[in-house]
Structure formats: structure tokens, C-alpha cells
């Protein structure tokens, strides 16, 4: 801290040839948070892991990102990240950790990139603080420890940012083309989410590049055209390919990548409307939890390590759990309610907002005295870039109708950049007694400590009073002492400033470790003492926040003495199907565990269970308690069913067909055999018609069907026809009699056989 009040130097020559020793422990911290124990996540997000298994089998599946080996339907995202995951699995073998590894490395890479970006302009201490803040932002390692896309997306956008900064410094056309082309690559990772940074790119290039206006407009126009061309390149190839020569585009309603990009993965995220095939109208997102996204459907399966399971506490026997969106004050999927202060609400604040007050004070300090017409310093130009990234993304998450907590990783780079640059700037103003600006440092410390106390307060039953009181007391004391010593020049203030930064980063550091301590969730990654629940955020009524998978419900796989009847979930308000989970049954509007689950209070999700459900190639010597099968709502198989289907297969292409991806994914992962998810991810895709199904059966492509409900959207006619034209297979032939096993792949269903001549 004592060096922070010195003038920032480029240090280009000296720093190019030596390693920053302060950066080494920061990178080691990031590596620990992103990599440690990822090998315990045996299935990761089973929806995506099944796709990697399928993509390993043929170039056709690889190119289209097919969910199943048969090439029936794709996953609901573009393929670039999954190409990388498939290459990783090809090199290291098909394991849970091998599909997670690229994202974990991307998380570490983002820390390094932010250091490089901030250090060059704001100084080495700013780069160090920015890198550390990025590494300790809780949602960053939480996402990076899974095979979800967002960590790789952020890394790619930071690479584009590095190229953009270089384009501004050199005024070379090639670098701006490369920067915007990289955004096009990011589009092929998660579609329109990549475009969130475009305001920052346009504003910065216009302000920072020292070329004529004519060249600026020409360069930006050309770069934008290139970005759009790269963005739609894969989509154009897919959409122009005959539908019978490729898989159906999963989660689209018209079998189109562009419709998926601008509808399901685009405007619907903002409006919260997710239409269901076959419905006469669009319903609010709160009533469409089953069809909203791949992360939503496979809700919460990971249980923590065995050490955590033994520590689960009983919940109140009389409480009833409301599903997110069903009137819960924490909003849909614990993302709060839209409004200007949404990022400070429960469920979001503990994922991303720990340093937001300090960032606000930093922005004030960095832009103090700036004139609209300029001229602008390099610091001010780059501060404008990070602000133009931060504000639009923050506004989106403040008003969006549908998103998940882990999308907030998009806010991590600008917050970390401002935390690093602001720490140096505010310290310099403080040491120089720069008028009112010298009060920004103690003010930022005080308000940030206050917010952190607010964030932690709902978790008092999990983390205790001591850390909450400690952060609050130390924050107040350090801020007051810094204010008192403001006019004094001595070494004590240097130590006080360093201590303040340690205090402000202490609890984010703990929160960032919670996926390791308590267990993570690969479907809906989040940080916090209930990180394994996949819903994040504190429970509103539970007696112990470790039970808060659904605001108080125990994470699947944990044990409790309570009966399941006392752990019911309220369906979303207005839900047309009573809010039941796939494989579950409705009972007076309350969500019930699927039949076959134990009555110990835990809610069994679709996926079935088996003692023989190790991922292929994984060590069979590992006990089930040492691995987290957090992937497909249990991500396990019914071994007796699998044996029956394998034995009675007479050359059919598909092992069996089922309504959606949740039931299919574990069997694809285990066997590598084609399993048909007739309605795609959520079961609502209009892929199959009765005539198409008849033709497939006559060709001998499929004869077994596992049905656990009436289907959604356009599937109802298909399901009805199957039931009317099939014979039911006696449950004794395929259902496991073990008390620890589910009945079938989805816990509550029937196996049918159809043979047409």
C-alpha cells in the first residue's frame, strides 16, 4: 500500500523481463478456487456432458453439437465451447473433470488478463488488486468449476478487450477487426449475451483512437460487419442445411438457430416470456420454469461431499417450500425482483455485489474533474470503457425477466477493474489531501463494509455472528481511523489502508470457497453456504441455510428425519401443470417427490439411481460418497432397466425414447448409446409428429418408450398415440427392487413397447 501514492509508471522494460512476485499467489489462489476437487464432479451438467459424449462419436455430431449420439436434437446453445470441451475429453479421456477443465482454465486466464489490462494504465498495484478481486468474486469460481459456458465467454470477451486496447494504442485496423471478430466468436458461445459489451467497445474506440472521424466510422463499420458475419456463420450453415440431414435445433420452435438466438436465448431473457409449444398464449417466465433454459430444467442435484451430508440439519416440520417464482420474495430462481436496487437484493448481492459501493466511490474519484469535451487521459478513457461495460449489463440484470445467478459473471470484470484502479486512485487522493476527494477512501470502506454485513446477515445460522460483527466493526473502525489520520503523514496509514482492503476481501474470499467447502452445483452454480443447492441465496424461512435448495429445502442427496410431506414445494403461480417437476406427481398444487424416493425428507429428482452408475472410464473403486453426481437431476441410471433394454434391443437405432433430456442424459453418458429425447431439452420442442414416429418405428429405429407424464406442448398427441398403440412392460422386468433405486430413468413412469409391421 505504501507504493500506491506514487505516480503510475509504464514499467514496460523492467516488467517484461521479470515475473511479478505479487501476482504468483494471486494466480495460485485462482487456480485453487477454480480447480481444486473438480474431479469429484462426476457428471458435471449432464445435459451438456451427454452432448460431449455424443460429439466424441462423429464429426456430424461434433459440428452440430448434438445432444444424443443418434443426431436427433442439438443442445440449446451454439457449439464453440462444447467443441473445446470435446477436444479436452478427447485428449484427457471422458470424465467430469475433463469437460470442466477448459472453463476452470478460462477462469484463471480471466484473472491474468485483467491484471494485464489494468496494470498497463493504472499501475502494477491496480493490476494486482483487480486480479485479486476477480479471483475472489464468488460467482467467478462457482461458474468456472462447471461445464457451463459463461466462464469461457467472459475470457473470450477479455481477449477481445485486450485486442481493442491494442487497436486504440496502435491505431491499426487489424486489431479492431480482430477485437470485433472475437465478439463474433463469443456469440457462437452464448449468442446475444456476448453483445452486452458492444456499447463499451464502440464508445472506447471512438474516444480513445487518435485517427480521423472518417477512419473511425469506416473501421467500426467494417469491424461490425465482420463481427456479424462471424456471429451468424455457423447459424447460416445450419439453417441452410436440409432438416432431414441434421439434428433438430434444440429449444427452438421453428428448427432455426437464428430463432433460438433472438428468441429463446435473446429477447425472451429480457421480457421473461418463454412460450410453450402448443399453448395458445405466452405465459410469464415465473410459470415456465420447466421450459425456460437448460440450466433451469436440471435444477439441483449435487449434494455436497460426505462430510457435508452428515451435517445437514432438520427443517421445520410444518413449513412448506415455495418454488422460486411462486410468490417468493427472492424472485424467480432467487434472482430478486426487477428494480434499480436488484443487485443489492438477496440471492444476487452475495454472488457479485460485495465491492459495489467501493466501485461507486472509485468511479466518482476516477471521473472527478473530467470535462465532457475532453481532453481525456488514458486512465479516463479506459475508465469510460469499464463504465460502459458495467452500466448496460447492470441495467439488464436489474430489469430482466429471466436469468440465472451465474450469468452475473458478466459483471465481474468491470467491478474488479474498478476495484483495482479505484483502490490506487482513492489512496492517492487520500494521501495527497485532495479536498473532498480525500474522503472517498474512508467513505468507500465504510459503505462497503456496511453492505457486506447486510449480505451476510441472513446467513447468521450458517456462518455465525462473529464474521458478520467482525467485518462490520473493523470496517467502521478502519474508516474512522483513516478519517482521523487524514491530515497526518506517517506509516500507520499505509498499514491501515492495507488492512482495510484485507477486510473488504475477506468475506468474498470465503464465499468464493463455498463451492469447495459445501459442494457446488453444476446445473445452477452459485456461491454461498448453500452453494450445493443450486439456487443460491439465503433461505427465507429455513432454520438452517444449508437446507436451502429451494429456500429451505434440503439439497437432493442429503438426509433428514423429516418426511417428504413436510418438505413440499409450492408450484409457480399460475402454472398450468401444477408446477410439478418432470417425473413428479402433483398433489393439490404442491410439488411432490417422484414415487420411489425415500421418505426421509429428501427430494429425489429425475434421473433414477443405481449403485453401478459410474461414468465410463472412471474408477470403479470410488464409493458413491466420494463423487458428486451433480448432473442430470441425479444423473444416474436404473441398471435393471438398462440391462433389460440392452438385452431386448434387436438392432434399433435408439436404446429407448423418452419425453425430455433429463431422463435421457444419464444413459447417454453411461453407455454412449443413442437415447431419444422426443421433445428436446424440456420436452416442449415440436420435433416429433405421430406420422414421423410411425415411420421411425416401421424402420426399426425405436421400439421402447419411457413415459413419465403427458408431455408438454406439441408432444401430447405423440404421447397419447404411444399409450394407445403399445404394450406396457411389467414393472417387475425393469424396475429395481432396491430401496435405494428409483423406478426407471425419471422415478415415476411406465415403459412401453411398440412394434409396427
> What is the number of helices?
28
- Tell me the overall shape: globular
Radius of gyration: 26 Å
| Structural classification | mainly alpha
Beta content comes to under 5%
Can you walk through the features of this model?
Helix 25 (661-671) links the parallel strand 5 and strand 6 (676-677). Strands 6-5-7-9-8 form a five-stranded mixed beta sheet, with helices on both faces. It has 28 helices and nine strands. The protein has helices spanning 12-16, 23-35, 46-55, 59-64, 80-92, 96-122, 124-136, 139-144, 150-170, 173-190, 198-208, 213-239, 257-271, 294-297, 306-309, 349-352, 356-367, 378-399, 412-431, 440-456, 460-463, 465-484, 492-517, 639-648, 661-671, 690-698, 716-724, 731-734, and strands at 321-322, 569-570, 586-587, 590-591, 657-658, 676-677, 704-707, 727-728, 750-753. Helix 17 (356-367) packs antiparallel against helix 20 (440-456). It is mainly alpha-helical and 757 residues long. The longest helix is centred in the N-terminal third of the chain and has 27 residues, at 96-122. It is globular, with a radius of gyration of 26 Å.
In short:
With 757 residues, this protein is mostly helical. Helices cover 48% and strands 3% of the residues.
Which characteristics define this entry?
single chain, 757 residues, mainly alpha, 5-stranded mixed sheet, two-stranded parallel sheet, 9 strands, globular, disordered N terminus
List the helices and strands and how they pair.
Blueprint: H1 12-16, H2 23-35, H3 46-55, H4 59-64, H5 80-92, H6 96-122, H7 124-136, H8 139-144, H9 150-170, H10 173-190, H11 198-208, H12 213-239, H13 257-271, H14 294-297, H15 306-309, E1 321-322, H16 349-352, H17 356-367, H18 378-399, H19 412-431, H20 440-456, H21 460-463, H22 465-484, H23 492-517, E2 569-570, E3 586-587, E4 590-591, H24 639-648, E5 657-658, H25 661-671, E6 676-677, H26 690-698, E7 704-707, H27 716-724, E8 727-728, H28 731-734, E9 750-753
Parallel strand pairs: 1-2, 5-6, 5-7
Antiparallel strand pairs: 3-4, 7-9, 8-9
Helix pairs in contact: 2-6, 2-7, 3-5, 3-25, 5-6, 6-7, 6-9, 6-19, 7-19, 9-10, 9-11, 10-12, 11-18, 17-19, 17-20, 18-19, 20-22, 20-23, 22-23
Amino acid at each position: 500500500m505504501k507504493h500506491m501514492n506514487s505516480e503510475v509508471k509504464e514499467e514496460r522494460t523492467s516488467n517484461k523481463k521479470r515475473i511479478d512476485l505479487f501476482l504468483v499467489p494471486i494466480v495460485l489462489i485462482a487456480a485453487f478456487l477454480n480447480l481444486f476437487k473438480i474431479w469429484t464432479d462426476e457428471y458435471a451438467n449432464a445435459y451438456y456432458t451427454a452432448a460431449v459424449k455424443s460429439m466424441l462419436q462423429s464429426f456430424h455430431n461434433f459440428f452440430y453439437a448434438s445432444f444424443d449420439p443418434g443426431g436427433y436434437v442439438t443442445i440449446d446453445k451454439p457449439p464453440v465451447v462444447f467443441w473445446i470441451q470435446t477436444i479436452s475429453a478427447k485428449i484427457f479421456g471422458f470424465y467430469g473433470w475433463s469437460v470442466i477443465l477448459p472453463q476452470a482454465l478460462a477462469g484463471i486466464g480471466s484473472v491474468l488478463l485483467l491484471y494485464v489490462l489494468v496494470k498497463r494504465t493504472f499501475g502494477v498495484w491496480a493490476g494486482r488488486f483487480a486480479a485479486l478481486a476477480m479471483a475472489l468474486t464468488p460467482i467467478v469460481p462457482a461458474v468456472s468449476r462447471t461445464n457451463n459456458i459463461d466462464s469461457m465467454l467472459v475470457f473470450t470477451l477479455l481477449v477481445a478487450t485486450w485486442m481493442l486496447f491494442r487497436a486504440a494504442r496502435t491505431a491499426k485496423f487489424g486489431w479492431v477487426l480482430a477485437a470485433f471478430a472475437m465478439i463474433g466468436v463469443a456469440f457462437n458461445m452464448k449468442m446475444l449475451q456476448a453483445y452486452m459489451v458492444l456499447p463499451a467497445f464502440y464508445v472506447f474506440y471512438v474516444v480513445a483512437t487518435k485517427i480521423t472521424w472518417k477512419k473511425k466510422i469506416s473501421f467500426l463499420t467494417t469491424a461490425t460487419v465482420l463481427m456479424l458475419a462471424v456471429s451468424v456463420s455457423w447459424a447460416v450453415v445450419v439453417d441452410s442445411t436440409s432438416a432431414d440431414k441434421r439434428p433438430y435445433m434444440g429449444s427452438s420452435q421453428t428448427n432455426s438457430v437464428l430463432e433460438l438466438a433472438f428468441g429463446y436465448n435473446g429477447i425472451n431473457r429480457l421480457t421473461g416470456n418463454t412460450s410453450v409449444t402448443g399453448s395458445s398464449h405466452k405465459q410469464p417466465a415465473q410459470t415456465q420454469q420447466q421450459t425456460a433454459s437448460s440450466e433451469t430444467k436440471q435444477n439441483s442435484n449435487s449434494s455436497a461431499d460426505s462430510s457435508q451430508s452428515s451435517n445437514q440439519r432438520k427443517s421445520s416440520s410444518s413449513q412448506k417450500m415455495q418454488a422460486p417464482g411462486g410468490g417468493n420474495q427472492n424472485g424467480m430462481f432467487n434472482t430478486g425482483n426487477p428494480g434499480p436496487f436488484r443487485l443489492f437484493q438477496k440471492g444476487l448481492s452475495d454472488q457479485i455485489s460485495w465491492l459495489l459501493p467501493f466501485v461507486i466511490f472509485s468511479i466518482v474519484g476516477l471521473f472527478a474533474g473530467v470535462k465532457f469535451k475532453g481532453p481525456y487521459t488514458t486512465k479516463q478513457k479506459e475508465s469510460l470503457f469499464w463504465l460502459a461495460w458495467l452500466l448496460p449489463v447492470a441495467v439488464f440484470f436489474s430489469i430482466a425477466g429471466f436469468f440465472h445467478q451465474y450469468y452475473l459473471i458478466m459483471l465481474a470484470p468491470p467491478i474488479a477493474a474498478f476495484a483495482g484502479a479505484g483502490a490506487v486512485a482513492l489512496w492517492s487522493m487520500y494521501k495527497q489531501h485532495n479536498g473532498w476527494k480525500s474522503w472517498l477512501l474512508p467513505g468507500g470502506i465504510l459503505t462497503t463494509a456496511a453492505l457486506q454485513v447486510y449480505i451476510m446477515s441472513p446467513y447468521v445460522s450458517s456462518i455465525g455472528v462473529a464474521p458478520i460483527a467482525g467485518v462490520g466493526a473493523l470496517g467502521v473502525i478502519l474508516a474512522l481511523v483513516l478519517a482521523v489520520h487524514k491530515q497526518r503523514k506517517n506509516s500507520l496509514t499505509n498499514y491501515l489502508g492495507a488492512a482495510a482492503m484485507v477486510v473488504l476481501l475477506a468475506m468474498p474470499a470465503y464465499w468464493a470457497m463455498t463451492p469447495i467447502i459445501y459442494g457446488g452445483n453444476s446445473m445452477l452454480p452459485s456461491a454461498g453456504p448453500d452453494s450445493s443447492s443450486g439456487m443460491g441465496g439465503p433461505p427465507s424461512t429455513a432454520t438452517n441455510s444449508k437446507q436451502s435448495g429451494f429456500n429451505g429445502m434440503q439439497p437432493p442427496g442429503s438426509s433428514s428425519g423429516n418426511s417428504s410431506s413436510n418438505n413440499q414445494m409450492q408450484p409457480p403461480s399460475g402454472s398450468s401443470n401444477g408446477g410439478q417437476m418432470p417425473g413428479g406427481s402433483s398433489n393439490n398444487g404442491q410439488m411432490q417427490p417422484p414415487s420411489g424416493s425415500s421418505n426421509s425428507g429428501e427430494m429425489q429428482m429425475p434421473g433414477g439411481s443405481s449403485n453401478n452408475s459410474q461414468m465410463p472410464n472412471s474408477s470403479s473403486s470410488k464409493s458413491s460418497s466420494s463423487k458428486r453426481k451433480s448432473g442430470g437431476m441425479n444423473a444416474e441410471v436404473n441398471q435393471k432397466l438398462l440391462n433389460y433394454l440392452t438385452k431386448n434391443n434387436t438392432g434399433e437405432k435408439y436404446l429407448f425414447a423418452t419425453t425430455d433430456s433429463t431422463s435421457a442424459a444419464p444413459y447417454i453418458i453411461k453407455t454412449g448409446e443413442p437415447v431419444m429425447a422426443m421433445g428436446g431439452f424440456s420436452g416442449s420442442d415440436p420435433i416429433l409428429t405421430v406420422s414421423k414416429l410411425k415411420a421411425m418405428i416401421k424402420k426399426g429405429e425405436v421400439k421402447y418408450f419411457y413415459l413419465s407424464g403427458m408431455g408438454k406442448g406439441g408432444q401430447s398427441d405423440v404421447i397419447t398415440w404411444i399409450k394407445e398403440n403399445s404394450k406396457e412392460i411389467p414393472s417387475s422386468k425393469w424396475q429395481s427392487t432396491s430401496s435405494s433405486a428409483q423406478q426407471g430413468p425419471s422415478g415415476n413412469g411406465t415403459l412401453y413397447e411398440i412394434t409396427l409391421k
